[in-house]
Amino acid sequence: MFFRFGSALVLVVLISLVGVAIEKRNLELRRGLSRQHYRMDALHEQYAHARLKTQQLGAPERLIESIDASELKARRPESPVEDESRRVPLLHWQRAMPRTK
Amino acid sequence: MSTTAGRNPLNEFGPWRVRLVVLLLFLVGVALAGRLVQLQSSRQYDLAGRAQRQRFYTESIPARPGDVIDRRGRLLATSIITPSLYVVPERIDDADTFAGRLGGAIGIDGDWIRRRVDQHRDKQFLWIKRRLSTEEAEAVRRLELPAETWGFRNEFLRRYPQGSLAAHILGLRDVDGIGRGGLEQKFDHILRGRDGERLLDRDARGRVIGVVDVTEPPQNGQTVVLTLDTVIQLHAERALDALMEEWKPKSACAIVMDPRTCEVLAMVSRPTFDPNDPSHVALTAWKNTSIAAVYEPGSTFKPFVVAWALNKGIIKRNESFHCEHGEYRMGARVLHDHHPFGELSLTDVLVKSSNIGMAKIGEKLTNAELYRAVIAFGFGRKTGSELPGELDGIVRPREKWDGYSTGSIPMGQEIAVTPLQLITAHAALANGGRLMNPRLVTRYVDELSEFDEHNLPGESTAPIVSQTVLPEVAQWVVRGPMTDVVSRGTGKKAQLEGYTVFGKTGTAQKPDPETGEYSSKLHVSSFVAGAPAYDPRAIVLVVADEPSVGHNHYGGSVAAPAAADILLKTLAHLHVPSDKAASRAALK
Predict the structure, then answer these.
(1) What percent of chain B has pLDDT over 90?
(2) Residues B98 and B203 both lie in one domain
(3) Which long-range contacts does A33-39 make (Cβ < 8 Å, 24+ apart)?
(4) Nearest neighbour of A33 by CB, restricted to B211, B360, B564
């Protein structure tokens, strides 16, 4: 009688302990899952900071000298390259043509 | 013994006491049952709701504002999270000490904090400083102030990694994250996104156990892809800075456009500001002079009148005009040219920028056709760019035009235009007469993990197109007179080695504020240039308002060198091949 009672008691206690363990595990997983939400936010934020930093470091304003050196082969001439064929007052007389009214 | 053994012990208290206890227990039972029924029926929803509120907490998930990037994927505006500091005035005991320590950590006057706390003693929440730097936040944490008296709340801070570059186009976001000015204002609804919500589980003390569910995912703001090219923008800004340094005008602007699509590659306005530091901006710097300033275009307007007259068959390409040796009477007014020209071909009327020649073309056109030309090239109304604050320009009603208008309009007076209107109309000439609305935004995209210029997701914006003049007329004006303006006319300083440049100078007189008449000292100097003339890939407009150094304020002197610099660097950046050989072959 005593043995049966004891066994039943142990069984109940064991079931309770297993229940508690499962519940704790459940909570732990939920907590882990919750952390993932915030971890994702934190990673997005880290990405934004890193992207901002790289863009600041690689901004054309910082690299413009090398951009100029590598890209610009042509240069604006110091003086006009084409000789001016006519001088001021630069009239284009067309006496052969009829005068417009 | 027998008598005591046979007695019921309860009888010692008397039967009435037992009955009383039983009755009381019964009544208590009834009361509890009644209360239970009451709670379960009449107050069920109220209590269930209260329990829900105690257990669950809905947290807002702020939507990340969208980025702004240029056509090559370079970041122009983005957002990062920064802590903002608040205090709980109701729970602060010693405001003097509290304010003094806090002020020292974040660089704010302690007295100001104390006064604010004292003024709002009954409040549970009071901002002290928004968007702290990392160092300031760390300094506050190190103070170890009582936990219940202060806290941080995360807020998005808008950052512009290219600094003041394209500041007028981008605009900025105010302390509440609302777009102010530029594209930040125009596309606020796209960039802002929509906040989400998640349900949190709390214990009896209100501490969060975990996230139950994301009930509504946040919709982050979309990324706005601009037509701007940061490198071209930078070249334009540097050229304009050099112009400002050399000529010291009141303001200046430069616009670079792809005439084939009317996409704006660069738009610069001076003076400018740094959107990362909006607290130190001069009042004059807020204005985007490319769209929010109007001026009389002067000679840069002449090609439109010529093109319209040719298109209508009112004049011919080989026609010539007698320019009356510099003096021409139109009604009560005598028109003057800057040189005493005689007979000039149509080409030379533009190349030499003869006002009298243009007035004679105006007389042939009449006011009715001049008005149609002005409207057809898009003046007097907004261009349809995406920028807020754009002006219409000024085109007086047709009924108010008189004999003066016939002479004034062809030489770019009596109307006022914005620089964006002017370059858009010149782009129409450069692309065969098709007038398009200028565009600053190519598309909006949701997520952009990898940037591919030629394969971007999202919906692209399309231009609105209208034909103004016949393609052959537009091409003749660009490849003929406007190319000659640069090769042998007033725009020689815009010549480029390797490219056939077309252009037109403009030197508009401004009204003297004292006399109300045109001033001989106040000018708006402008120059519009494009290349290659036989297949224009870029067109540039530079406008300087009231250059104050020196006496020669002609557009060909003030604006042409800057325009040429910008044009050359733009063509090089776009890898446009030299066209000199091709143009010579075409001429032969």
Answers:
(1) 69
(2) no
(3) A33/B210, A33/B211, A34/B208, A34/B209, A34/B210, A34/B211, A37/B198, A37/B211, A37/B214
(4) B211
Tens digits of per-residue pLDDT, B21-32? 999 999 999 999
CB B323 within 8 A of CB B343: yes
Backbone angles phi, psi at B124, to 5 degrees: -95, -10
Please count the structural domains in chain B: 3
Residue B9 belongs to a domain: no
Reported as a single tens digit per residue, the pLDDT across B138-162 is 999 999 999 889 999 999 999 999 9
Using a CB-CB cut-off of 8 Å, the residues of chain A touching B322 are: 99-100
The count of structural domains within chain A is 1
ipTM of the complex: 0.77
Tens digit of pLDDT for each residue in B174-203? 888 899 999 999 999 999 999 999 999 888
CATH code of the domain in which B99 resides: 3.90.1310.10
Q: Residue A78: inside a domain, yes or no?
A: no
Q: Which of residues 293-312 of B touch A (CB under 8 A)?
A: none
Helix (H, G, I), strand (E, B) or coil at A99: coil
How would DSSP label each residue in A5-74?
A: HHHHHHHHHHHHHHHHHHHHHHHHHHHHHHHHHHHHHHHHHHHHHHHHHHHHHT-HHHHHHHHHHHH---
A13 inside domain: yes
B9 vs B240, residue with greater confidence: B240
Q: Do B258 and B327 share a structural domain?
A: yes
pTM: 0.82
Render pLDDT for B229-273 as a digit per residue (tens, 0 to 9).
999 999 999 999 999 999 999 999 999 999 999 999 999 999 999
Percent residues over pLDDT 70 in chain B: 94
Is residue A28 in some structural domain? yes
Range among B10-19, B260-269, B547-556, B575-584 rated most confident: B260-269
Contact B231 A60 (CB under 8 A): yes
What is the enclosing helix (H) or strand (E) of B115? helix B110-119
CB contact under 8 A, A92 and B568: no
Are B260 and B111 in a shared domain? Answer: no
Phi, psi for residue B564 in degrees, rounded to 5: -65, -40
Mutation for B interface: A28, A29, A31, A34, most B CBs within 10 A: A34
Give dist(CA B440, CA B461) in Å, integer.
Answer: 10
Domain with B562, as residue range(s), is 230-273+291-447+460-587
Q: Cβ distance B254 to B266 under 8 Å? A: yes
Partner B contacted by A70 (CB < 8 A): no
Q: Report if residue A6 sits inside a domain.
A: yes
Alpha-carbon distance B340 to B334, whole Å? 14
Whether the CB-CB separation of B253 and B240 falls below 8 Å is answered with yes
- Mean pLDDT over the full length of chain B: 90
How large is the average pLDDT for residues B400-427? 94
Q: How far is B209 from chain A (nearest CA, A)?
A: 7
Structural domain of residue A21, as residue ranges? 2-53
Q: B396 φ, ψ to 5°?
A: -65, 155
